[in-house]
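thread: overnight batch results

M.L. [08:02]
morning all. the overnight job finished for the chain we discussed friday. pasting input first so we're all looking at the same thing
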Amino acid sequence: MRYAVIAALLLLGQAASGALPTIGADLGAQSRYVWRGAAFNTEPVLWPDVWASWNGVTFTAWSSLDLTNVKDEAFQPTDVGLFLEYARGFGPVTGTVGYGHYIYPGYAGAFPTTGEAYLKAKADLKVLSATLAGNLDLIEVKGLYVSPTLARSQALGPVNATLSLACGFGTDKHNVYYYGVNKTGLTDFTGTLSLAYAPPALASFMSVTANGGYARVLLADFAGTKQNLWCGLTFNFFFRPGS
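M.L. [08:03]
and the structure it wrote out:
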């Protein structure tokens, strides 16, 4: 709750200075919930979020809801994430610093509330983009997760296609919390393809994105499903006052 209050105060400060934020909401459905290579839910989920962004500062509130009764929690939030970040461009490089607060109401206490500070650097090159992200847990896990990503975007008529490949590395504390493996090392490999389309008559406030992905957990001692395939569809809505 404190992070939502901080974000609200920042928003009010910007509004008082005459700088109005862009606000939005997304509604996505995924065939399964895969995070850092591992399946948190092997059945369909719904991912709603709301966000506000201004002068490089973005606040997002996100949740995952089960669409089946696999955990006896159909249409109940199992995961909640609150994110506050600041991004700034330096020529072809964009740097981002932020904090994500994770609440897990749907796992019967298996995953206590925790939070990560993160840093990202994204370089837009001629052919592709390269991103290096580091997430350091500050509350419960006290572990580090690092992920480099390569991505290539291409316009295919009215559709923008993006292919990305990422690999993760975690310290022993991170890996025992999320994978049950008390060992430092490479954690996962993930490849995703997204197809984004903005209807011409609605492009100033709406888009729709279809996505698919493959992930593999690389930890030899991981006891869960090591390979995951999924697909999804997300509707994106945004509004910029005065535009």
